[in-house]
Fold each of these.
Amino acid sequence: MDWQAIGLSLRLAACTTAVLLALGVPLAYWVAFSPRRWKFLVEAVVALPLVLPPTVLGFYILLAIGPHSPVGALYARLTGGMLPFSFQGLLLASVLYSLPFTVQPIAAAFSSVDRKLLEASWCLGASRAATFRRVVAPLSLPGIATGAILSFAHTMGEFGVVLMVGGNIAGVTRTVSISIYDQAQSLDYAGAAKTSLVLLAVSFLVLAFTYAMQRRFWSLWPMS
Amino acid sequence: MDELAADFHRTHPAVTLRPSYGSSGNFYAQIRNGAPFDVFLSADVVYPRRLAQEGVAKPESIFLYGLGRIVVWVPAGSAVDPAAALGSPRIRHIAIANPQHAPYGRGAEAALHTLGLYDAAKPKLVMGEDVAQTFSFVESGAADAGIVALSLALAPQAHGKGRYWEIPLDDYPRMEQGGMILKDSPGAQAFRAYLTSAGGRAILKKYGFYLPEGY
């Protein structure tokens, strides 16, 4: 059993979710509330990773972060390292790949907050930030949780992008889906089935725990 | 394969060849589960032999069409000589196919051992799932050098994009490339006869697939 790969996938999924929440919440807020007429263009760009096959997306990410690209060159100047074949590279690729899974549920939740409540909050003198913190965010919590959970689950099962960007290095870029694929390719179908079962069980536990927490958290959230 | 298909069609107008490309291991699993192919050309004759053992096809339909040959490939802009690339300190990443299941990866790993460079190269190794993806790691510049199939280095798409050095055949175990007939038909028979004929062999050789004398 490749526990190292399972641990790596969990770490990658957790880091991806954290980065996506930090980026996705402001982006979703902008998508939901911006008066700009061209915001549909941004929404379309955010949804694009859903269209491209993961290996194709992965191939272009590899080109985009490789040492010959501006991004890769800048990264090399700042850190002396390289993005392809590194955990940081996988993290960047996963963030792009799962972006729609974070932004769309959160933007939908923000949009469905009753406009009257926002206006009431503003009339009572609360700033936009305070309104977000005390009205929008609490009412959108289920949507934010859904975005986070979907991103986590999507990253756990990510295969094509990792395959193209990672280089299959044990402990660095060999995630559990790659490990299962390797086992199946070397005709070790029993081993692949065992690892798949563990992936399913671990994912089920994480998701069940998160949904359970969400429910309790929800009822304890201070509404004042 | 395109040129081969065109030439085969010219000499056998009654038969239409429709190739599907993929890794040998994937096709092995698909064929075992009833994939509707007539002929299977594998990068490693182990897969056809295994299918024969399992009774999926007849062992006497297996034929060899080439030996896998590996080369060290560096992009055209690289300052490193491909013959010295594996041991060069200027190389940060060496791409090989996954030796766990890709025949060319096993060859690459064995050659590194024979050349006495394995321990130095090990921390630099990145693995593609097959030799084509390995090649894309190097072509994109993400890896500085790669051990890939001679057929890829000779492919028209790679022309002018890099330089290669062929690793001597004796430095790694022979990779016998073989095919087999899955569904017997005059068309399948004709294709096998064509691949082992002088005309078929000439085209295969142009792309790096050929058997040494005596095979």
Note: Chain B has two domains: 2-67+175-206, 70-171.
Amino acid sequence: MNGRAAILARIQSALARPTDVSIRGDSSTTADRAFSRFLPRVGPDADALARQFAENAASLHAEFHHVDSRDHLVERLRELATENDWRTIATHDGPLAKPASEALRVPLHCVGPDDDAATLAQCDAGISECDALIAQTGSVLVTAASAGGRALSVLTPHHVVLATRSQLTPDLPTAFELLARKYADACPSMISFITGPSRTGDIERTLVLGAHGPRRLTLFLLESEE
Amino acid sequence: MTQTARQFQRNCDTTTNDADHRSWIRIALNQAGDARSTAQARFNDWDGACGAASQIKWESLDHLAENLESFEAKLLARGASVHWAETGEDACAYILRVAAERHAKRIVKSKCMTTEEIGLNERLEAAGLKVVESDLGEFIVQLRKEPPYHFVFPAMHLRRNRISETFEREIGAAPTEDAESLTLTARQELRNVFLSADIGISGANFGVADTGMISITENEGNARLTTSIPRIHIAVMGIEKVIPRLADLALLLPVLATSATGQTLTCYNTMIGGPRQPGEVDGPDEFHVILLDNGRTRLLADPGLRDALRCIRCGACLNICPVYRNIGGHAYDTTYQGPIGAVITPHLQDLTNWKHLAFASSLCGACTETCPVGIRLHDHLHHTRSMVAERKTSGLEAMMARMYAFAALRPGLFQWCGRQMRRTLRMTTRFRGGRLDPFRAWRHTRDLPAAPAKSFHDLWKERKA
């Protein structure tokens, strides 16, 4: 604990001298916290938000589809499974993800506490739920609690997200409000905003998808939850 | 002149004479600038966003001790370990101890500048551990045994043929000019590294005081994998990174992404608040956070320079800097390049060896103008110069200034000196830039204007007459 005491003491004595006014100005001490006013504008109603999310997803090279019902969802998932020749898929024990994945009749790995990551790495796709879709940025908000832990949403080459209409959220500030409301003091150990499929520009600034995470990100928005 | 300053001068000579290199860096950085402008334009009020981000970072420093204590308490309550490291050596020793106690052999890293700062890889390798960088750019420069060229774009100086050569030589890949194939090669090579690593080491872009979390910004997913798969996760974070509230990220994440890479958000923005919790299916059993001082409290103690601790490491000041654009990232020989590196390195390391960085600037102020959190970078460079001048022991410059003052106060002598100077300029024109040129230091790479026939004094007299 020596380092701790020494560092904290140095911080206290350093801050005893006020910051030069020439550097900081005499600005107020707290930030304007209505961040939504600064960030990219969002649509006024649910339809506008859905359109905005779709536009953002498209520019991020994510695939976004509306589905009317759970049956319709399974139908679209089956098409994906056939087109892409999925041999094994992974999912988690979620009320939407698990039954939909089971209905595909493709060998299924449901993530659990005794798994080896290598098993998940062999799967062709990972199907997960999420906490929210964010219209402002085209992001998917996942947590270790909502999306089957940490690796399911990042280790397979194709991540499929199942979201419901009520999860469509306008912007980043409301997404953080949602996290605080939903989890309060029992926050999952991982929260991630996923904005499009994994990418890199490290080679001559050329955009390449699928750097280390999924090369494809498919998003289904379920219109009704009957 | 110190060894480091001489090396800096040699490095600058090499890159400024390499026209291909400079032209590629200019193209790449112009693209980065264009992308940023587009992303900025998506904001409803970019200046307002920067103003609020700037305030949040000031608040973070104002309450740094409380923020760190809250950050630590929340993490401890969720089963993480927190280690306060006064020096880089202390941080390295802690990581080596964790590795030795757990019999770890293989380590995978996601991009982390603080570990570059403390020379962690060398220490781990010396202890017989296998360390692999997983960010594509970092992986490439690690294979080439080079330091990162830019703290956001580590391999931006390399054209694809050079990357292909590196992969061919170091990992036996087939040569290709295709960026996608090169990326795929790295992905395949690193898959098993992730799956077999005993420890994952990451950095942190922000620490969050109210919830006890670290936040990591990335595009590739390598940080997600580094923090998901290995049994032990160690994060190394500078103490200045702690912000008050999780909700502040709603602003800071898009401001960082916009300034750094011209994206509204990068692909993965991940907050980690502990090891795997009860009921979770995966995640590391152990999570260690190292809070690194390593000179930061020294910067904090300076009532002006502490401003630089608000940096969010977006790299925008490098991209815009006319000096960085011409001398390139490797010339600095520092972990943090460009204007921000020139501001903090002389104070994080030592002023004697690194003061030359404060002079490698035209003080044009482009860095200050572009900084999203409003750090007064060029003022700090200027301030550092004053500090150097105050402690200067060599009398040569002072003597020259006294001689100039002596002449300037005596019009006859001043005019005589001017005449001698014009004559010397005319006489030495034929030696321009050569060994006999008394103005060689300037003229071997630049021209001087031709010596005028008449002095200002002569012209003034003529006009009055």
Note: The first helix of chain A runs from residue 2 to 15.
